Amino acid sequence: MNSLLAPVEAADDKLHEECGVFAVCAKKDSAPSVDPVHVVLGGLTALQHRGQESSGIILGGFEDPARIEVAKSAGLVASLIDSGDVLRLDREGATVALGHVRYSTTGGSGVENAQPLVAHTKKGAVALAHNGNLVNSQLLRELLEEGGSVFRTQSDSEVMLNLIARSLAKKSALEAVRDAVRTVQGSYALAVLADGKLIAARDKNGIRPLCVGELGEYWVVSSETCALDAIGAKFLRDVEPGEIIVADGEGIAGSNQEEKTETRTCSFEYIYFARPDSVIDGIGVYGARVRSGHQLFKEAPVKADLVTGVPDSGIPAAAGFSEASGIPYGMSLVKNRYVGRSFIAPNQDDRERRVALKHNALKEAVKGMRIVLIDDSIVRGTTMRSLVSKLKGAGATEVHIRIAAPPVAFPCYFGIDTPYREDLVSNKYDIEELARRVGADSLAFLSVEGLVQALSGTMGFCTGCFTGVYPMGAPKPGRED
Ligand code: SF4
Hints:
This protein is elongated. It contains 17 helices and 25 strands. By secondary structure, it is α+β, with helices and mostly antiparallel strands. Helix 5 packs across helix 6 (about 175-185), helix 9 (about 285-300) packs across helix 10 and helix 9 runs antiparallel to helix 16 (about 450-455). Helices cover about 30% and strands about 25% of the residues.
């Protein structure tokens, strides 16, 4: 199928993050006065952009280590609240709460795969919330199944949970998590409840973000700093690549578990996934996007009357392009925020209508103007043709597209939902042909070097979906494959 006429799931033409993790642990071994459920729901709501297919919360750390309270729901955090289950959680005596929002890649999107996942061991309940993707999970699952383990979900995260639960029989919570993270390969930002403690861990390349904070009576673990801000928590620090952090009633402490670590944070977190008000590994996401706009102008200048961003993804880079070029910045498109991913379009006409419904051109702003239209990425190319056509239909005399990232030409194996390679538009057409297909007067992408320059100037990022060079090997198939 021509990717410019691709299925409706592709209609927002973005890569999708897999998950967000948020957790709290009481600073003393007694239940705090602030309701942990409310704190975690606040954090998860701030992380909603990282996953909209299911959400969940568990409470643990009770006097009885086997006791666990669970509420999960398909859909947004608001659905979890509306379901009423979360209000029925018995929080009396809980000292740890784990939350998760999910967008599925491995395993289906049903509520049975919703996290946090829970296992019961001789030492009590263990729970896990995971953002990332394990590249050797299929092989590990087969080995564990041969050893008698039974899995309830198709999720790679359950493999990690199983490994922790098995080690916990003989070892401490920290040692059990350490054993598990040394066995798996891939990306993980984890929050684990084990033995009444909250344990956070980040893979040796730090591909997915994870940070710790403090809120009154709680230690907090979060995928992004924006969720700390949302609940009024103080940012303490990022979890280092390869680090495991243990928080309990005694305090919080981290230790590096991997002998060889090399930071390769996902560059797409800065380009699109993370919220602009987050700071990852000391780099502000908004600032990185603005700098990518500066760099884009340096690499691909153009004469125009108006710089404008595709709402909302292209706006910070458009502000940067405008600053660097001196061309005024303004709005050209209005986005209908109520056309969501849940809009089911059964046939091609409906799909085209959905794309058309999502944006409208501001005629009074664009008539007679030469426009630079900035976005953060083009994945399948489904939206861009419609936007160019709307701008020209509204009277724009020229539309020049500038993309604040290199062409996405390779899949991601680390927790991002990437289309098949043949559906990636940059894999099918050269830039001139792509410009012709979307109806643009010119089209340019940021270079990989320019992206790295905009992020921090030093290489410490995964750029695999642009270059095909990854921080670690591709997924290992199961033994029958
Ligand atoms: S391949 Fe690397 S840069 Fe691209 S989305 Fe995946 S982790 Fe991020």
